[in-house]
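Progress narrative, Year 2. Work on Phosphoinositide phospholipase C from Brachypodius melanocephalos advanced from sequence curation to structure prediction during this period.
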Amino acid sequence: MQQGTLMRKVKSKSWKKQRYFKLQEDCMTIWYQSKRTGKTESAFSISDVETVREGHQSEVLQSVAEEFPPECCFTIVFYGRRGNLDLVAASAEEAQCWVQGLRQLIEPGPFPLTFALVSLTWIRDWFQKADKNKDGRMNFKEVQRLLKMMNVDMNEDHALRLFQDADKSESGTLEGEEFVLFYKALTQREEVLSLFREYSEDGKKLTLLELADFLREEQLEDEGTEELAMELIDKYEPSETARARHVLSADGFLMYLCSLEGSIFNPQHRALWQDMSQPLCHYFISSSHNTYLIEDQIRGHSSIEGYIRALKRGCRCLEVDCWDGPNGEPMVYHGHTFTSKIPFREVVSTLGKTSWGNSSSPLPLMGTSPPSSHPQSAEGSWSCWAPAVQEPRGQGPWRCWVAQGASLTPTPQELKHKILLKGKKIGRLEDTLDGPGDEAPDVSDDDNGAEAEEERRRAKVRGTQHGSALQKDKETLAQELSDCVIYCKNVPFRGFQEARSHSRPSEISSLSEAKARKLIRDEGNEFVRHNAWQLTRIYPSGMRTDSSNYSPQEMWNVGCQIVALNFQTAGMEMDLCDGLFSQNGCCGYVLKPLFMRDKETLFNPSDPSSREGPGPITLTIQVISGQQLPKVANSKEGAIIDPLVRVEIYGVPADQAHQETKYIENNGFNPRWDETLQFQIHVPELALIRFVVEDYDKTSRNDFVGQFTLAFANIKPGYRHIHLLSKDGTSIPPSSLFVHIRITE
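Result:
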């Protein structure tokens, strides 16, 4: 990567300033300074960077697309709520140099290297923060300040002893490798060493057979343990001599336990591991509500960034609310509110570029109201993504996959790289596939009147239609859009019996969260049966103007597929969403349990005994220790957290539970709990487990520190690390918990 590169930092159409950007010698920090004044403007750590996007993949860069070519543009996206950094390089070659260089630094490679790099990055970050006089050395006073910053409340004599042991030069300061030695002494893991010695005959190494015994007895690896042991030694043992002798040192053992193979999340389930050839209605689908909003529902900002972030997070069902704008330009925003607006064309262009980056799974679009005032303008926008829209056989200018005799219940596998539109339709799907029909347009609306009222308001906004030629254009466009509504035809919900008699698998109904709860309470089994053959979408109450979320778990308990959440709002609800969809290659589709795919199922979430299969299981979790937990945001200087761990179970009502450990006073660096929590789970197929770390406060609500959520089906038993995530769902390396998991029937 080049250093001292002159690039344009872009904030808006009118704000484009030249800045020098430079990667520092530690290869972990980038600073930039003004070309005019030469003063350093800001700096950031590579560890703060989530991803790098090429081209016009931000709202700001799209606004200057005519001025700067896409090959010179890129966006640096940070973790959390920090704003993007939009840059324009002098040439495509220079842009690629930075893009590829940054990606090499931030993207994970082989895990041993990544684990070492994370630790090294963390050490360097803290060293730079504590080195007050910036002389590259650290005296004991600076080390004491560092310990406070790192959440360590250590006896001064013990800290001095560690300092002196690491000060090999006897200079009274630590520099370079001396500080690394100090850090290693500080982070020595007694609980891991104790476990290592249990299986090591000489206490210094694990032989191939000893490691195989550990994998079989503790990690419950039941197949090919000797072959697996050999793989782990080759992958995680840092010593070449030890690798040649097929033994694992204590350092290699810790590297394995901190790796993906040592994670609580089954690594085999990270990839696409489920059957993708079932009908769409047999899957839970990651879904967002009013995707374009990145703030509240009344005055919030609408941005294409909402779509980009949702797609990057694995969302596969988006909402596009389209209205007539000035001069016939279709606009996307929350109708009848004060939210800002974005051109429909920009949304379409963004989806065309970003929809398939993380997943090839089909992408349903909800809430699309075709603009009507200027059909030519709308058609121009539509052409940007039309090649991906699922079309009926033999109609339209684009290639279609629907063949003669195609199923009315297609699968995600069949619909890869396709966009599905939810909306009203002229006629039935069967008529569309067979040819034009004579059936009148379906103009029905959703059951509770909310969306019906919305449609009436939209009709009012469109106003009176003028001119017979224009009217003809509109009717043509409406027919073209109707033809694209195939597997998500919007129909009102008038009861389960009515749906069984008159509805089709290609149709979908939308329900408010309140209506869904009433149905769950009154007709739970019928709701599960309905969702075994038809799609149901749930959306938040209109009272949630602050973009808060409802719990998706109760909707998943009855098999609702499209449970729309406000992705911009962090919290338990989005943790559950991320936890469920972090499996199966993060494709946004998770196969429902077998008993929820049977149209005649007896399952009712309010009665766990109605589930066919084995009885309840017992989940036993020993919470052993924590490592390098982050400080609470906006805490006082020198404050150290008092961490506790709470384990929460989400599932059917009988499984909802939580337990917590005691708190450890003044130790966020390496707290030890050694406490055992136990849960009985009746329907494990629907259960999600959430691990939450909080800073105990006896006078007010505990402060959030970190969390990790996963589906019960993805748990690996044994001694496992849990790598914590922030409130926004982003990684906070190297913060983790060390636990022991047992599952018994």
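DSSP finds 21 helices and 31 strands in the chain. The domain at 111-187 is CATH 1.10.238.10 (Recoverin; domain 1).
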